[in-house]
Amino acid sequence: MAAKTLTIDGKEISAEEGATILQAAEEHGITMPTLCHLDGVYDVGACRLCLVEVAGTPKLLPACTTRVTEGMDVKTDTERLRKYRRMTLELLFAERNHVCAVCVANGHCELQSLAYSQGMDHVRYEYRFPHWEVDNTHPLFGMDPHRCILCTRCVRACWHIEGAGTLNVSGRSAGSHIITDLNQPWGLADSCTRCGKCVMSCPTGALYYKGSTVSEMERDRSKLEFIVTAREKKQWIA
Amino acid sequence: MAKRILIDPVTRIEGHAKISIFLDDEGHVSDAEFHVVEFRGFEKFCEGRPYNEMPGITPRICGICPVSHLLASAKAGDAIMAVSIPPAADKLRRLMNLGQFIQSHALSFFHLSAPDFLLGWDTPQPQRNVFGLIGQNKELARAGIRLRQFGQEIIELLGGQKIHPAWAVPGGVRSPLDPEDRERILRWLPEAYATVQTAFDLFQATLQTHSREVQVFGNFPSLFMGLVDPDGTWEHHGGKLRFVDSSGSIIADQLDPQNYAEFIGESVQNTSYLKSPYYLPLDLPEGMYRVGPLARLNVAEQMGTPKADAELARFKKLGRGAVTSSFLYHYARLIEILAALERVERYMDDRDIFSEDLRADAGINSFHGVGVSEAPRGTLFHDYTVDRNGLLRKVNMIVATGQNNLAMNQTVAQIARHYIRRQQNDIPEPLLNRIEHGIRCYDPCLSCSTHAVGQMPLRVQLIGPDGTVIREAARG
Fold first, then answer.
1. What is this model's ipTM?
2. Where are the domains of chain A?
């Protein structure tokens, strides 16, 4: 495949044709905040945390779904980007009920870590305080929509790593939410294989192992990478 | 003309409150009410949450006694799982509760109440606080602050943080004591004992000069309730409930806290966000009972440790039957600190505190669970009803300050009657302070009692029969 040459934050790099800006940047040790991105599943550009500036384009573009082009000039860390990233985080916090102090994921939460690292010290928007029902019907796992940021990592892991297709998104706009099977209680969803990949992939405390108490949800994502790598490299095919 | 005196806000208590004193046409005190003016609604917004999360959520009710809510909540969780927790976990929970008793009682005695009786009721208000105490007796104030720190240290060493540790969980606790931390506690104990001894000496001297306060600061007959062991020994985390009356006779014993609704009723006043529980078989007003240090010492036959037992014997001599003066809550508090120190010392020789077998595992085996623990201020009930998936459908909490609500009203009225003279036109500030102190005896925690947000300030209102406020003193 042809290589493309581009500049990211003043650094000249080359990347394979078809690679995303995020992939190209990571390959060269340039980091940027991400939230809906999960190694091993395709990207959807849902969270807008990895927005970057591309010279000649007035719009900000998500690095995870924008392909590199020849001569592209990308900036990943500008005052404008920092401002929008903070705003995005504030909107995520205002949208549902994120109460870190009493959350099962406190201290192990990607949303919380990003809020710290991006300097989000307060929320300027009015909290919406929506009411959702916690789904604790599954024998092993629970789902608390109050803490969901609709990144859809769980949906993608369920469909494209496990291949079960249990999790889906229902509704539109602020009413969007994650459902299991045909919007049945999770415990009644026949397609669920109880593999737990969705729980491993969740960035917040929305999906958890049942019985978890404050701060106890630590996730082991290496298992997801292990499966994806084995599949891509055909390690399990004799 | 009849009047009302309003003290708003009440100071040096944990929370936000006001006091109304009603005067009749003759200028006599006709009644008094203590109003808690905070509201938070924990019982409502916890509905729908998984019960496992409650030991993380309910400690947020209060920054002074989060441990009490943590432990009661975890115990309610044990009841829902219907498990017996590992013995080591029970010992560690008790150790943390003892740390809580030490820190909270030290706060009440040294920081909040001692400035009144050590510096004097008539000391100008700006000096009548812990800073005034530091000015007058730096070593004593320092020792008191250090004693509180010792209690906080025990909580932190076990739970990882002083305030709001999420360490106790349904089924047990998360981690044992580290052997190095045991050494730290042992090194600190002699200093803590010495401080309690100093406080005892001070309070004995105070008793000599404050016989009038003992007489009129909430000295009336009532029932007393607290947890006791099967043999009547002082309890703070397990055991069953006992009621005694003011003659010291046991009127009910070994009541299972799980069935509290059969013997405790909750009445509501339209002037306060605080509910007023009472002993159901006797109804009101006879069913009024007090909880907390005074009540626990009244229901207990012995403390179960030698030094505290010797003090308990001296304490019991202050009453005919039960000790009925709320001013002696302060004394009872000191005896409980001593008992807590002795028990902490005892646990330091128990290998179980290093055990790794700390957590029982189970699903939902009961849709209803009650967790009861003695908080520093008195018996605390957490009552949870869950659905088959472990989500809370109903939450009821009965906290110590609520149970003392009726007694606090009576205490305020008694002090006001004694000090406010007929046709008195001016109510001087030191007098209002004595009325406030009637509340301080109970070390009320208003954030807990209404599960509410608050700072610390109080108002007293003098109210006429026509409802007009004649005089009002506000602070805070």
1. 0.88
2. 3-77, 97-232
